[in-house]
């Protein structure tokens, strides 16, 4: 068997690691630094109709003023589920309900709140690192399968090195993004 028979799809691995970075950027966008933003609710999932549903699929998210986000819930029976999802999201915002409108007053960021948001950012970064490592593991599994199908040990080492380099590059991107986001959060 020739070396070409054992191509490891690094493009697929790269695409999946890019996906983890994209998800991290979305989660970071949700961490607002004291100003109201509709994107801060993007990662919030609501238990609706027996499944986890993005909050923007159960209501309209608006920013009527700089320190207020509202969610106009379309189905009255989901109002408490929306409130619960927001409280459990780690955003540290206490929703206030007025009929089908859930109001989220955005508090001024004190030092404690900034530290809390920085911790949430670190959790998001760790989730991204885990996702990237899972993609790495998949790549290594592909290499193991190819090895048992006859890939030479030299080729195995080359591919493992390539997958590891890819992983290291993405982990560095996660760390840099986290550092930038935490600096942004801690800025007074």
TrEMBL record:
**Keywords of the record:** Cytoplasm, Protein biosynthesis
Q: Name one Pfam family in it.
A: RRF
Q: Residues in domain Ribosome recycling factor? A: 24-186
Q: Which GO biological process categories is it annotated with?
A: cytoplasmic translational termination
Q: What is its main location?
A: cytoplasm
Q: Where in or outside the cell is it found?
A: Cytoplasm
Query: What does the UniProt record say this protein does?
Result: Responsible for the release of ribosomes from messenger RNA at the termination of protein biosynthesis. May increase the efficiency of translation by recycling ribosomes from one round of translation to another.
Q: Which organism does this sequence originate in?
A: Shimia aestuarii
Name of the protein this chain belongs to: Ribosome-recycling factor
A GO cellular component entry from the record: cytosol
Family membership, please give it. Belongs to the RRF family.
Single GO molecular function = ribosomal large subunit binding
């Amino acid at each position: 068997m020739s070396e070409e028979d054992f191509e490891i799809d690094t493009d697929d691995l790269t695409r999946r690691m890019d996906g983890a970075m994209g998800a991290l950027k979305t989660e970071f966008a949700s961490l607002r630094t004291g100003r109201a933003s509709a994107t801060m609710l993007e990662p919030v999932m609501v238990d609706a109709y027996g499944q986890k549903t993005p909050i923007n699929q159960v209501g309209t998210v608006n920013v009527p003023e700089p320190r207020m986000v509202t969610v106009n819930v379309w189905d009255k029976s989901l109002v408490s589920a929306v409130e619960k999802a927001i409280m459990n999201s780690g955003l540290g915002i206490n929703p206030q309900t007025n009929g089908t409108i859930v109001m989220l007053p955005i508090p001024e960021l004190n030092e404690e709140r900034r530290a809390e948001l920085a911790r949430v950012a670190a959790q998001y970064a760790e989730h991204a690192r885990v996702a990237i490592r899972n993609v790495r593991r998949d790549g290594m599994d592909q290499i193991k399968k190819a090895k048992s199908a006859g890939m030479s040990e030299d080729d195995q080492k080359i591919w493992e090195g390539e997958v590891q380099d890819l992983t290291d590059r993405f982990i560095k991107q996660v760390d840099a993004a986290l550092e930038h986001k935490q600096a942004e959060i801690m800025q007074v």
